[in-house]
Amino acid sequence: MNIKQFQIGWIILLMLAIGIIITIASSVNPSKIDPTSQTVGPMNSSIITSQNIPEVTGYIDDSANLLDADTKASLTTTLTEFAKTDKGELAILTVPSMNGLNIEEFGIRVGEKWKVGKAGIDNGVIIIIALSERKVRIEVGRGANITDAQAGQILDNKMVPKLKQGDWNGAVKAGTEEIILLMNK
């Protein structure tokens, strides 16, 4: 790890701490996502079981009904075509609630259950939006050609501005485009 990576790590940790403070201090409004709490949540002692994790239904599971039909159709085509490459796979999950679970553990469990990516390579990525908790996360497999820092930048620069405007479709499209662009490098 070089000094720049170390500094970036500390900056990310500071941003996460601020996100936790804002999350705790703000009142929950399930009709809007709070982009400042995008990747953090209070640790929860709840046992995460397979019942808490949705079954895989395809590259898009919009259980929270955030995306319109045209967006789902367009993204399904894009994600299906991308999966035909050797670069990896990308899936999108929106849920009404994580039932009190923190998004980091939820994302890991979704990744483990869904097995997004090529077998043995772990090159899958999942965009997760939890509506009632007001959380958004990009879960990145170890073999994906995208770092956690890049995922954070996609959230900050591409998705969060659109989420602040309530543009669910635009946010998911922008995140998808940027992730595929990076994974194709």
Description of the structure:
- A hairpin with a 4-residue loop joins strand 3 (124-130) and strand 4 (135-140).
- By secondary structure, this protein is of the alpha/beta class.
- The protein has 5 helices and 4 strands.
- It has helices at residues 3-25, 69-83, 103-114, 148-164, 168-183; strands at residues 60-62, 89-95, 124-130, 135-140.
- 45% of the residues lie in helices and 12% in strands.
- The protein starts with a helix and ends with a helix.
- A 4-stranded mixed sheet has the order 1-2-3-4, sandwiched between helices.
Strand order of the largest sheet: 1-2-3-4
Strand content: 5-15%
Q: Work out the count of structural domains.
A: 1
Element pattern in H and E:
HEHEHEEHH
The CATH first-level class comes to: Alpha Beta
* N/C terminus separation: 22 Å
Going by helix content, strand content and strand pairing, the class is alpha/beta
Largest sheet: 4 strands, mixed
Q: Number of DSSP helices? A: 5
Assembly state: single chain
What characteristic shape results from the CA principal axes?
globular
CATH topology (fold) name: Diaminopimelate Epimerase, Chain A, domain 1
Uncertain ranges: 23-50
Mean residue pLDDT: 81
Number of strands: 4
- Helical residues, percent: 40-55%
Give the SSE map:
Elements: H1 3-25, E1 60-62, H2 69-83, E2 89-95, H3 103-114, E3 124-130, E4 135-140, H4 148-164, H5 168-183
Parallel strand pairs: 1-2, 2-3
Antiparallel strand pairs: 3-4
Helix pairs in contact: 4-5
